[in-house]
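Lay summary. Proteins are chains of building blocks that fold into shapes, and those shapes determine what they do. In this project we predict the shape from the chain. Here is one chain we studied, written as its sequence of building blocks.
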Amino acid sequence: MKCPNCNREVFITSKNCPYCRFELQPTNDINTPKMAIIKDENPEKLKPDQLKIDAKREKVKDHSSDKFFIGIIVVGVLVLALLIINRTFDKDHKVVATESSTTENTTSKKATFNIGERSTYDYPLSVGGTTLATLYDSEADVYTDVDVTAVRFIEAPEAMTIAQNQGATLHDGFEWQGFVYEIKLNDLEYLKDHAVSPILNAKLYKWGGNDYFIYEGHHYFIDVKTVYNSIKIKNKETAAITVYYEVPIGETEYSICLGNELHTLGCFSKFVT
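And here is the predicted shape, written in a compact code that computers can read:
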């Protein structure tokens, strides 16, 4: 290099010119390459390649932020779902002590005074047994289980007299039979001083729940008719009711069921095995 004062060649490592003693500028290690770093905050002065790189970096930052917030949302939804499931599980498995009831509508649950046992057309009771059956009060729109006792089955000659007195007609190959039951109201406190018709729905069933009879290749649905004086009774009172119906001659293997199919049916049969 040359001395800026005397313009003579001097060593690059010299601190002073050996000729004029001019103090030279100090230099760094000549073996270490140097790189100038220029910072410019104005993006308009940056090269196109630098702008593309910076744009990509910004996009990466934006996507990272989006993923972070999406992750938070997903976790929040999962936590909320678990809370709802847990609350539903606790609700479904909560044990509540309630008394049994035989009355259905908007009234509260209460104890029953009925003594009848459950029965079905496949497992009927015999004469003298007491079963449960549902009585429908159409005026109050209330279904209530009541006690029903089988008094007796009516044989063909007596049943025919009852049917003739009622003006009923008989199909060829059929005979009249009948049944007498006693109903007792135990759980109809809602009646207070009012009365209700004690007549129950009645239907005949074969084994397996078939509600028809087959005779000479034809299916017959039997209409069970009621004979009663239309007197209504109050809670804790009883009434005896007679029904009659036609069946194929000699038919005995059936059950007569009283009540409501969607609630409680009480069934009886002549021959209980």
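What the prediction tells us: Residues 28-41, 89-101 have pLDDT under 50 and may be disordered.
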